[in-house]
Amino acid sequence: MNQYITLKKGLRLFWVFAMLITTTIIARGELRLPAIFGDHMVLQQGVKAPVWGWATPGQTVTVSFAGKKVSGKVHADGRWQVKLPVPNADGKAGELVITAGEERKVFTDVLAGEVWVCSGQSNMKEGVGETLNAKEAITGAVFPQIRLFQVDMWCSPHPLADVHGGKWEVCSPATVGKFTAVGYFFGRELYQMGKTPMGMIDSSSGGTAAEAAR
Known about the structure:
The protein contains 4 helices and 10 strands.
């Protein structure tokens, strides 16, 4: 019983500490974006793509890419979101620039193209390195306009505002081995058909449910 009470108090202290950290970040006015935004990323072509994050309430945030620019206000809770017009893919990499006040974030080597989420269980999770003829597949994975994002496994009983870890990587023999084989071969096939840059996001995890928790 005493151990249960100690654990319960410990959890309460943890959440208080986490809330204090979040409040401090917002009060400090740090311009932040989720981990899904980064160098080497792919933006969905031909749409008004959402770009979002956190900054000082009341500030104006400006986002620009490939000659397009859009601005929006930061809400009272520190969150902001704008819809960025993304041009059709031309294979040319550019910079995604976000400014808020005197703060500035620049993501380099960003492409417009097709973005796919690869989600599922163990059959989707299996990496290229575990497939038949894996050595040949890995050696031939030289596709600089295919970009890979591996979402780290992280369980939560509530929806999260950000993924836990992960970063965009250029597809190469050094990065493709542990990436979802189904996702990689699918993206490779589409790229070879149309030469359109591909952004592949792997969020698969063995044994997980297909529906969202309520």
